[in-house]
Write a structure and sequence with these properties.
By secondary structure, the chain is of the alpha/beta class. It is built from 10 helices and 14 strands.
Length: 302
């Protein structure tokens, strides 16, 4: 297949491009700068400009573009960037697909378990209603833009991704050095549920969505969501270090502002649709995932 990928230089996109290429697919990477090599196509999510000639013959599109959620404090400007990078970017992409002939038959669009909002210990599958607040509102608008591709004859799969565990970046990579030093611990109460997935399983699940026939929302999370304290405990056990130094919620709120609420609340999300089609997780439990995570981080160290 000829597959176009937005967000191809990001944490998940980089790994996905490598996976798809290794599987024999031809990958076209959409970039927001002048192309510097073969397989790159220029686009501007905000202005709506897309090099349509570079997308000719594309069979499927994976849309992973979007500003980072947890890498800086949520100011009004940053919240607008988080929303616009997803909503306007997806709108631009779908409009471009409408102008292609023939059109791609598959759109796998990034999404997030933030759709469900703060739901305590309630077990959530893809049939659960969305929550309230900034992130649920962003995800609703983001998914709505992607679903417009259904009117163009595309099969649309919405990849509702949880916390991605990898040693190459993201929240887990920032936590690992503290764990190794014995300085890690629960965040806030530690009772908030974390729905996680390793990068290896995330990429495998995205490939399944491209090559398979699932449509609509699909939770990309491991089948063992856990309270934050249990996730941190498993990481500490894998490193042979204690995890007793709790980060008080009030300190996180002072340091991170509104972003802290996303860290101190969570969702207990189950990958019902992945399990329903027989998807096999390489890292189905946190203990297995924690061992892989430290191995992954060690491989990436210079």
């Amino acid at each position: 297949m000829r597959i176009a990928v937005t967000g191809s230089t990001g944490l998940i996109g980089t790994a996905l491009v490598a996976e798809l290429s290794a599987a024999g697919h031809q990958v076209v990477r959409l970039v927001r700068r002048p192309p510097t090599g073969p397989g790159e196509v220029c686009w501007d999510p905000h202005s709506g400009a897309v090099d349509l000639a570079g997308l000719a013959g594309v069979d499927a599109v994976v849309n992973l573009a979007g500003a980072g959620i947890g890498d800086r404090r949520w100011t009004a400007a940053r919240k607008r960037e988080i929303r616009d990078s997803r909503v306007l970017g997806t709108r631009t992409l779908v409009r471009a697909l409408d102008r292609l002939s023939p059109r791609p038959t598959v759109l796998v669009s990034g999404s997030a378990v933030g759709y469900y909002g703060a739901r305590d210990a309630t077990e959530l599958t893809e049939d659960a209603e969305g929550g309230e607040g900034f992130l649920p509102d962003v995800v609703r608008a983001w998914e709505a833009e992607a679903l417009r591709a259904g009117d163009l004859g595309c099969r649309v799969a919405l990849a509702r991704t949880g916390l991605v565990l990898t040693g190459s970046g993201g929240a887990a990579a920032r936590l690992l050095p503290l764990i190794r030093l014995g300085l890690g611990g629960p965040l806030g109460s530690g009772r908030q549920w974390w729905s996680w997935i390793t990068l290896a399983d995330e990429v495998a699940a995205l490939r399944l969505l491209v090559e398979g026939d699932l449509s609509g929302p699909v939770n990309l999370t491991a089948p063992q969501p856990l309270p934050n304290a249990e996730v941190v405990r498993a990481l500490g056990a894998a490193a042979g270090r204690p995890t007793l130094l709790r980060a008080p919620g009030i300190a996180l709120r002072l340091a991170l502002g509104e972003l802290a609420e996303d860290i101190l609340t969570g969702q207990r999300v189950m990958p019902a649709r992945l399990l329903g089609v027989g998807f096999r997780f390489r890292h189905p439990t946190i203990d297995v995932a924690a061992g892989w995570l430290f191995d992954d981080a060690a491989r990436r160290r210079p």
